């Protein structure tokens, strides 16, 4: 057997495998011998069928199958031994094979991953956001808590302070969604007056343009996707099903103890401090994810490398369950190209900066997750043996281990970006951060 490679260019190669008869004939003979032992052919006893008849009936099929097995094994081993980083899978070249020849020759096309390097420390326009819970947000959260733990009172007519349960509908756009909204959620006094004084069963027609402060609220109440909601200007009919008003809970020690445990919070100021602390922890996680995404986007835009586009398009034609035409494969490649580039950049971050995971890191992270979850249910100091048993069970679940591994690697990449990327730190409120996230 002989394997050679011809590098067509930096992104494409042809691997040629030559098999002599001694490389495969023994396997073929063994399979045909087993066929002979078990063959049931009329006119012959079991096991007494002439080998010539077995070869005539099964020889070619067995030869194809055994040669194919050897080709797959040898090609796979070759790629590992040569440390070839390929995209897609090798494609067999359609050559006329003389199966009676002493040497069989097979060619395979390879699409090679491009060579490139990343510059994390270069000039960029990346902002790293520090999201703060401002006074306006804290006041909103305190009011939300008061309403959440308050008493709901049914009303006959809609007032400025009312909450309504009802259905937004527009038959042409396929909108029919029941929601709960407060009159104060609705933007402009003109729109609010359309609801005030209405009763259960009444219908109010309003335009979606400028109905709420931002499109995300409109997206939520109409149950439409992010792309559709932008610029949406249609009339919707709101049918009132319920009218309620919340009698706010008092900000007293009973409420504080119910929220945080006895004596943990003893004043409105401490309540706001607690809300601020908890909120900003969540904001930090979201800001970190945006920072990660922004760095990757920067790397994609500023790292130039070619891809074996023709090879990948050809590979896509037969890669799925249903074969594609050349036109369909080209369209699919265009759609998936950015995702492929993202994966290559992501992999290069890990290889260029030698980011690796080991079993102990994954186990340690899993232990922390378990302890944090148990703490949420009041188990602040669980027995070590109990935690170890839970961790052991989790580590036997491959899907969970994969998910946790991704989280650990995510933290390593974040630490790398924080260290290497010279980003501008910008302090913003959560409302402004949302605008930054969605470009509004």
TrEMBL record:
Species in which this protein is naturally found: Myroides profundi
Gene3D superfamilies, A to Z: Trigger factor ribosome-binding domain, Trigger factor, C-terminal domain
Q: Which GO terms describe its biological process?
A: 'de novo' cotranslational protein folding; protein transport; protein unfolding
**Source superkingdom:** Bacteria
* Name of protein: Trigger factor
Ranges where the Trigger factor ribosome-binding bacterial domain occurs = 1-143
Cited InterPro entries: Trig_fac (IPR005215), Trigger_fac_C_sf (IPR037041), Trigger_fac_ribosome-bd_bac (IPR008881), Trigger_fac_ribosome-bd_sf (IPR036611), Trigger_fact/SurA_dom_sf (IPR027304)
Cross-referenced PANTHER family: TRIGGER FACTOR CHAPERONE AND PEPTIDYL-PROLYL CIS/TRANS ISOMERASE, TRIGGER FACTOR-LIKE PROTEIN TIG, CHLOROPLASTIC
A GO term for molecular function: protein folding chaperone
Q: Which SUPFAM superfamilies match?
A: Triger factor/SurA peptide-binding domain-like (SSF109998), Trigger factor ribosome-binding domain (SSF102735)
């Amino acid at each position: 057997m002989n394997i050679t490679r011809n590098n067509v260019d930096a992104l494409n190669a042809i691997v040629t495998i030559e098999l002599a008869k001694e490389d495969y004939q023994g396997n073929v003979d063994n399979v045909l011998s087993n066929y002979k032992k078990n063959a049931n052919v009329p006119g012959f006893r079991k096991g007494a069928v002439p080998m010539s008849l077995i070869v005539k009936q099964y020889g070619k099929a067995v030869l194809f199958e055994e040669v194919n097995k050897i080709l797959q094994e040898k090609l796979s081993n070759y790629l590992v031994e040569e440390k070839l980083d390929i995209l897609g899978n090798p494609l067999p070249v359609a050559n006329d094979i003389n199966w009676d020849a002493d040497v069989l020759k097979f060619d395979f096309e390879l699409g090679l991953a491009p060579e490139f390097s990343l510059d994390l420390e270069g000039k960029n326009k990346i902002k790293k956001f520090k999201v703060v819970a401002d006074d306006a947000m804290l006041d909103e959260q305190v009011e939300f808590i008061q309403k959440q733990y308050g008493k709901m009172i049914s009303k006959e007519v809609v007032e400025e302070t009312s909450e309504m349960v009802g259905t937004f509908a527009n038959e042409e756009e396929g909108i029919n969604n029941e929601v709960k909204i407060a009159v104060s959620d609705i933007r402009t006094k003109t729109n609010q007056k359309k609801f005030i004084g209405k009763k259960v069963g009444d219908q109010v027609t309003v335009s979606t343009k400028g109905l709420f402060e931002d499109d995300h609220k409109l997206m939520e109440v109409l149950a439409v996707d992010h792309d559709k909601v932008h610029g949406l200007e249609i009339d919707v009919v709101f049918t009132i099903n319920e009218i309620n008003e919340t009698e706010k809970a008092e900000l007293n020690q009973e409420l504080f103890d119910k929220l945080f445990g006895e004596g943990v919070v003893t004043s409105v100021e401490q309540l706001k401090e607690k809300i601020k602390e908890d909120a900003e922890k969540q904001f930090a996680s979201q800001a970190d994810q945006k920072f990660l995404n922004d760095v990757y986007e920067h790397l994609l835009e500023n790292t130039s490398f070619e891809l074996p586009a023709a090879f990948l398009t050809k590979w896509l034609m037969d890669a799925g369950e249903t074969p594609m035409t050349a036109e369909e494969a080209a369209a699919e490649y265009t759609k998936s190209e950015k995702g492929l580039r993202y994966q290559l950049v992501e992999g290069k971050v890990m290889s260029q900066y030698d980011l690796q995971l080991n079993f102990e890191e994954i186990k340690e992270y899993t232990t922390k997750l378990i302890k944090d979850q148990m703490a949420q249910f009041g188990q602040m100091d669980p027995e070590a043996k109990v935690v170890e048993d839970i961790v052991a069970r989790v580590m036997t679940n491959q899907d969970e281990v994969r998910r946790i591994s991704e989280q650990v690697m995510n933290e390593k990449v974040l630490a790398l970006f924080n260290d290497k990327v010279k980003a501008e730190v910008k302090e913003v409120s959560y409302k402004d951060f949302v605008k930054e996230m969605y470009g509004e």
